[in-house]
Specification:
Largest sheet: none
Helix content: over 70%
Shape: globular
Structural class: mainly alpha
Number of domains: 2
Number of strands: 0
Order of helices and strands: HHHHHHHHHHHHH
């Protein structure tokens, strides 16, 4: 007499299992977060790394900035700007000691790196203007081993000189490429380079690029290019101001 209820219960159980299995099988795979795609895309070139890292930092996305820059410093170990941005992301994440290491590494590659110099000064203020440990070590070396110290100074001088020559050649090639992009009408790539120059605080390079634009376009046409292709609002405002000043200066010559 209990056969029918039991059969019905078994049917309900099997039906429930079928529905659950179907639901699991048809559940879509969650795609990778958008920022992971941005990181993968940015790592394709040094320029993209710098621009995307700056966007993450400006947006307060320090975790994503650290993830991008941790991979970027491995791929581009001699790029002082990328290393300095890594320090900035760590600094904003309250990892002061790790940030200082990155800034000092950047300064070894380029003593004029403005990002690293600015944050080193901030770190010194945070630490109560304590005497720099590295400087103290250098003083100790100078007292105990003057000969070794002089050899080291000469080596650093030679390294800095060769690095300066290399940077000049690199800058020349960079400028030449950007002009070709502009003449070809590839304004998106051209403005990417402009934004890279803004992030690098390279005012000479920015003015050179703007002067070149004004040789081929009116100020209004240049501003339209900025409006369409410059990604970052603060970069857009800076470039708009600078090209207005460049136009004003040219009119007085």
């Amino acid at each position: 007499m209990n056969t029918l209820p039991r059969t019905f219960s078994l049917f309900i159980l099997l039906f429930g299992l079928f529905i659950s299995s179907y639901s699991l099988a048809t559940t879509p795979i969650t795609p990778a977060p958008d920022y992971e795609k941005k990181i993968k895309k940015a790592l394709k070139s040094e320029k993209r790394v710098v621009i995307q890292a700056q966007k993450f930092i400006d947006a307060g996305k320090y975790k994503q900035a650290n993830q991008l820059l941790a991979k970027a410093v491995v791929k581009y170990p001699t790029k002082d700007l990328i290393i300095a941005l890594r320090g900035e992301a760590l600094f904003q994440s309250k990892k002061i000691n790790e940030a200082e290491k990155s800034f000092r590494q950047a300064l070894l590659l380029n003593p004029q790196n403005e990002v690293a110099n600015k944050y080193i000064e901030k770190i010194r203020q945070i630490q109560g203007n304590q005497e720099d440990k590295d400087l103290a070590e250098w003083k100790s070396i100078a007292k105990d081993k003057v000969g070794d110290f002089l050899i080291l100074v000469i080596g650093i001088w030679l390294g800095t000189t060769l690095n300066s020559i290399g940077k000049s050649l690199s800058s020349w090639r960079f400028e030449r490429r950007s002009k070709k992009l502009f003449i070809k009408g590839d304004y998106e790539s051209f403005t990417d380079i402009l934004e890279y120059q803004v992030i690098a605080f390279d005012q000479h390079a920015i003015r050179t690029s703007l002067d070149f634009m004004l040789q081929h376009k009116t100020m209004e046409e240049c501003q339209e290019i900025f409006d369409e292709f410059v990604d970052h609002q603060s970069h857009l405002e800076l470039l708009q101001r600078m090209i207005s000043k460049q136009t004003e200066k040219a009119s007085h010559v």
